[in-house]
């Protein structure tokens, strides 16, 4: 039975030169500290182990662990509820730091945390051709979140129908190219277009252009995402647009090449519609530029998720629209 000491009892004991009997520390942690070990760098495909070590806990103390990813390309953490977690280093177009945190929960309800950063070295074989290993059918429809100044849009890309275009788009996403860029062309009842200009309206330097894949069966219907290009067929680089309505005139028909659709909006079409209604004017020699900047704050490559079907490219109906979609 635990002894209860009153203030007067403690005073008498201390005056007598003694000390109260110390009860066992059943709350779990006295000066508990956490350290984390992980390799400083990792190559694509390498299994990276994250290990947490706790000191200062009383014998027999039960601790629980939670691992989280704080930033960087999202990966799947195995063993996230244990002292040792792991992940497979993803394929990236350039070196990127991934940061992880472990929270150690003690029985006394305190949480002790520590973080660690692992640099993932660029994959020299990160390619644009259709031989790129997708890692299985569950990666045929990767998702990307576009965080804009007017809300969030989630895209499901269709690597099955447009492998070159999807790989190209993901390279830009993974490299942070689209972060803090403008939606520089907005036309109500037509499209919203971005991916080419920074916040000072400087045109960004791009990778080489890619082959046109417009004859892939996907249509420029409302809610689909497609690549902008110059008049030349194989001239698309980084600029993309989202169709606000069905734009049949942009499709590849009767042997005429169109604009490559490579995915669709699965969440946030209301955000697309709001962007499409902003006031526009002329700027830097261009028309249809939002008067107040509409910013693509961040493009995030989400964890791959399976798809029960595919992307048929449709997301409702709308009126017609047409026009040249030039872009770098």
Structural class comes to mainly beta
What is the N-to-C order of secondary-structure elements (H for helix, E for strand)? Answer: HEEEEEEEEEHEEEEEHEEE
Strand residues, percent: 25-35%
The coarse silhouette is elongated
Mean pLDDT: 82
Total domain count: 2
Distance between the termini: 78 Å
CATH superfamily of the largest domain: Cyclophilin-like
What do we call the CATH topology of the largest domain? Cyclophilin
In the CATH hierarchy, the architecture of the largest domain is: Beta Barrel
Strands ordered across the widest β-sheet: 8-9-14-12-13-11-10-17
- Name of the CATH first level of the largest domain: Mainly Beta
Rg calculated over all Cα atoms? 27 Å
What are the segments in which pLDDT stays under 50 over at least 5 consecutive residues? 1-29, 128-138, 304-323
Largest beta-sheet details = 8 strands, antiparallel, barrel
Helical residue percent band: under 10%
Number of strands: 17
Would you kindly provide a written description of the structure presented here, covering whatever features stand out?
Helices cover 9% and strands 35% of the residues. The chain is mostly beta strands and 328 residues long. It folds into two domains: 24-120, Sandwich (Immunoglobulin-like), CATH 2.60.40.10; 137-301, Cyclophilin, CATH 2.40.100.
Please render the helix and strand layout as text:
Layout: H1 7-15, E1 29-37, E2 41-42, E3 47-57, E4 64-71, E5 84-88, E6 96-105, E7 111-120, E8 143-148, E9 151-157, H2 163-174, E10 181-187, E11 191-198, E12 224-227, E13 240-243, E14 261-267, H3 269-276, E15 280-283, E16 286-290, E17 295-301
């Amino acid at each position: 039975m635990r002894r209860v000491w009153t203030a007067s009892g403690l005073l008498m004991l201390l005056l007598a030169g003694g000390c109260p009997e110390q009860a066992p520390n059943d709350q779990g942690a006295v000066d508990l500290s956490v350290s984390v070990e992980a390799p400083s760098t990792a190559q694509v495909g390498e299994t990276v182990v994250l290990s947490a070590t706790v000191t200062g806990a009383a014998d027999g103390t039960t601790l629980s662990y939670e691992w989280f990813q704080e930033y960087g390309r999202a990966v799947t953490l195995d063993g996230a509820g244990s002292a040792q977690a792991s992940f497979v280093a993803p394929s990236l177009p350039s070196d990127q730091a991934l940061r992880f945190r472990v929270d150690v929960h003690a029985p006394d309800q305190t949480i002790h945390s520590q973080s660690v950063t692992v640099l993932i070295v660029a994959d020299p074989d990160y390619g644009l051709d259709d031989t790129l290993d997708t890692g299985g059918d569950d990666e045929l429809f990767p998702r990307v979140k576009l965080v804009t100044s007017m809300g969030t849009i989630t895209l499901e890309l269709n690597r099955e129908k447009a492998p070159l275009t999807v790989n190209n788009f993901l390279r830009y996403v993974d490299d942070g190219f689209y972060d803090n860029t403008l939606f520089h062309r907005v036309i109500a009842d037509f499209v919203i277009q971005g991916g080419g200009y920074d916040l000072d309206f400087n045109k960004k330097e791009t990778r080489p252009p890619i082959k046109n894949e417009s004859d892939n069966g996907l249509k420029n219907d409302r809610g689909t995402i497609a690549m902008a290009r110059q008049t030349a067929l194989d001239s698309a680089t980084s600029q993309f647009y989202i169709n606000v309505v069905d734009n049949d005139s942009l499709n590849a028909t009767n042997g005429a090449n169109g604009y490559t659709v490579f995915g669709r909006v699965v969440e946030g079409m209301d955000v697309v519609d709001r962007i499409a209604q902003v006031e526009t004017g002329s700027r830097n020699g261009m028309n249809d530029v939002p008067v107040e900047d509409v910013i693509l704050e961040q493009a995030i490559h989400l964890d791959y998720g399976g798809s029960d079907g595919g992307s048929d490219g449709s997301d409702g109906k709308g009126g017609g629209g047409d026009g040249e979609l030039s872009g770098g």
